Predict the 3D structure of the following.
Amino acid sequence: MELSLFSVLGMAATLLLIVGVGVYAGKKVKSGQDFNTGSDMGVSMVAGALIGTLVGGASTIGTAQLAFQYGFSAWWFSLGGGIGLLMMAVFFAKPLKNSGLVTLPQILTREYGKKVATTAAILMSVGTFMSIVSQLLSGVALVTSVCAVPTAVAMAIVVALMVVYVVFGGAWGTGMVGVVKTVLLYVTTLVCGIASLKLAGGLDTFTEALPAERYFNLFARGGWKDGGAGASLAFGVLTTQAYILPIVSARSVKVSKAGAALGGGLTALIGLAGIFVGLYMRVYMPDTEASVVLPKFVLTCLPDFVGGVILATLLIALVGTGAGLALGISSMLCNDIYKVLIRPKATGKECLRFSRIVIVLILVSAALFGVGEVGSTILSWSFLSMGLRGAVAFAPLCFALFSPGRMGKKVAGAAMIAGPLLVILGSFLLPDHIDPLFLGMGGALLICFAGWLWGQKRTHSHSSR
């Protein structure tokens, strides 16, 4: 697939717009707090930061790829994330915002102590790092599919864009760029969805040409498999620092709820356009390699300049997700390790410098890891990484927010370790059609619930004396 001059111009114009917004956002950063939390965000900023981080390769290129193979089953990529954000709005936004804390480990520290929080931070950072690698690999696939450049050069391009996206503006950058990116992303994906339906002559063409059981079934890969994929995204969103940051950065509880709800609704809808593109390509270009279904549709079926804008927007979607996840890790390391164990009296400028250095190191490390021999296997672990994060922190977080003081730190620590171990064990022992997340989440919740009951019993016993 070759790019025409107009395609290149469309890509360049879009990338320059994003770079300009990112640099402008950097001017608003005066301290480490501005960088890590972007305090006083409005509804659009909160929703933009959430979508800017969540909607990446899986929700666009990945959705079209899976839809090419399984149809509407691909919706779980974005539907699960949307459900997670809606759950955030209804149940978690208020206690998270009212906690007055910035990071998930801080919440766990207050309830269970530093050791448990450190354990959670390490395990969740590993899972988050895996997702960053997967975004880098998705970006490389996109760049190399349209440009004749070596993998290393493509990786360097994607990393450089991630650095510009977040390192200058931090949470302000991800929020402001996220708003611009969201507008671009939804306009361009809408164009792709409408174009695929129009070129095909309507949805009836797809229903007549493709088997309904496989291509028009949300559970085409099996209820346990697809249900587990959606659950992995939902629980992963609720326990990932990158998605908690915009919530605690909101101007008020009302704003955080509205931003999460808006982000959830828009995230759930984003996958439909990719599904229609995947179905179109399955009917009219069935020999296409699944991983390049969306780029090929854009370059072969749309005007050159428009196609260039869409390709750049897809690249920005990948970049935004990886950059936002790196910001989440940086925020935890700064607030829960650097300021606690290394420099308790660190100034705002010191924290800002530390956060920026850490983000660059994370992205460079992820790039080196991605181009290594194991890099090719990481992309298939994207859902697993979200599931691991959920298995680590979801149960302890729920009890910390909704029933504080009722469960011991040893129980929380045991649940955090048992959850991901059971997920990993289940990935080897369970049949392919059953997502191991259910085993890990079930085990962690059972341990926490047993500890909670024991705490209730002890409290009742002491009060009766």
Observations:
- Confidence is low (pLDDT under 50) at residues 34-38, 373-379.
- The longest helix spans residues 304-342.
